[in-house]
Amino acid sequence: MKRFKIFTLALAVAFFLIAAPAQAVLQDMQASVYKWTGGMGSDGKAVLTKIDSGITFKVLAVDSDTAETTYYPGKTTALTNPVTTTSFASTSICNKKVAFRVDPTDATSDRYVDLIVVDTVGGYTAFVENFDQYTHTIVIDERPNVVHQGTIWFGASSTSEINTGINFAPNTLIQDVRVEVVTVASAVTLDVGLLSSGTGGDKDGFRKAVLLTTAGYVKDTAVITAGASVAYVPASTYGALLVTAITGDGATYSGGGGKSYLGHVVVGPIATQATTLTYQNPSTTGAGYIHYWFNRMR
Fold first, then answer.
1. Residue pLDDT tens, the chain, 298 long
2. How many CA atoms lie within 13 A of 33 on its CB side?
3. Do residues 250 and 229 lie in contact, with contact meaning Cβ atoms separated by under 8 Å?
4. Is 263 left (phi over 0), alpha (psi -120 to 50) or beta?
5. Which of 120, 185, 236, 257 is the residue whose CA sits 20 to 30 A from 39?
6. What does the alpha-carbon distance between residue 197 and residue 52 come to, in Å, rounded to a whole number?
7. How far apart are CA 213 and CA 93, in angstroms?
8. Kind and range of the H or E element at 162?
9. How many CB atoms lie within 10 A of CB 245?
């Protein structure tokens, strides 16, 4: 009987050792999100404020643009990636944290993922590399009078404006907007602007008719063309909120064309003015990122 018990115990241990790796590949990762607006305490440490709402984030395979397959924390229920602000704030899902379960696509150590974490209140972004289950704090730099780079993904298809959820604060200067194509779409263009239903809004005010046919960062199409009398600029993919494009037809010198940089200052109040970043993408396949550079002036 004693030998039988020992044999049974050995089988149980062996089964556990065989089964354990299949469970271990799924890792629970979570971190609280804080913002830093430049304040310093008497102890010389940065004064941080915890963010409990308005956060959206995307989980990527380490050193890659490929989205990871994510699950509810502690569960095997699929969690949509990118993770929405609603899921972030939900006490039954992320519980006000960047929280998810994942099997990292990390061929080297099976440990890390990369994150893009966006505070939609202002558009500030944290890019977190090599995030793992032992990292529990994410800090977003939200200082005023500093130029920031923000990023938001695009992919949903619609012939109408798509709300990114990002609302710029009043007195924010938008300096530039660029489009990065990850998944190409033939003969498809993308518009980026501010919600047209708001005062001063323009759905293609930042970028207009940006081609999604080539992967990478899209260059402005304001190519100088040889005209009958003078070289000219036939068009620009920058919108009227950022650049005044003086396009020409090549017939006369005055029609030669050119561009005058403007930048755009977002004004308030948020309830009536156009402060929301939008895009329009009629493609079902085109996807990538919208990068924007901005400075909250006060």
1. 545 444 444 544 444 444 433 444 899 999 999 999 999 999 999 999 999 999 999 999 999 999 999 999 999 999 999 999 999 999 999 999 999 999 999 989 899 999 999 999 999 999 999 999 999 999 999 999 999 999 999 998 888 899 999 999 999 999 999 999 999 998 899 999 999 999 989 999 999 999 999 999 998 765 555 555 555 555 678 888 988 765 555 555 444 445 567 789 998 777 778 889 999 988 788 999 999 999 999 8
2. 30
3. yes
4. left
5. 120
6. 28
7. 37
8. strand 162-167
9. 20
- R_g of the chain computed on alpha carbons: 24
From 118, 186, 181, select the one nearest 152 (Cα to Cα).
Answer: 118
| Ramachandran category for residue 171: left, alpha or beta (phi over 0 → left; psi -120 to 50 → alpha) | left
HEC per residue, 29-54: EEEEEEEEEEEECCCCCEEEEECCCC
Is residue 8 classed as helix, strand or coil in its secondary structure? helix
Query: By 3-state DSSP, what share of the chain in percent is helix, strand and coil, each rounded to 5?
Result: 10, 45, 45
Residue 50 identity:
K
Coil, helix or strand for 243?
strand
- Residues 54 and 68: their CA atoms lie apart, in Å, by 22
Alpha-carbon distance of 263 to 266, in angstroms, equals 10
Tokens of 112: 């890390």
Residue 91's identity, in one-letter code, is T
Asked whether the bond before 269 is cis by omega within 30 degrees of 0, the reply is: yes
Q: Which two tokens stand for residue 170?
A: 């009043």
Q: Is 127 exposed, middle or buried (0-12, 13-18, 19+ CB in 10 A)?
A: exposed
Closest CA to 151 of 128, 169, 132: 128
The per-type count for the chain, helices as H runs and strands as E runs, is 2, 20
Nearest Cα to 26, choosing from 81, 82, 100?
A: 100
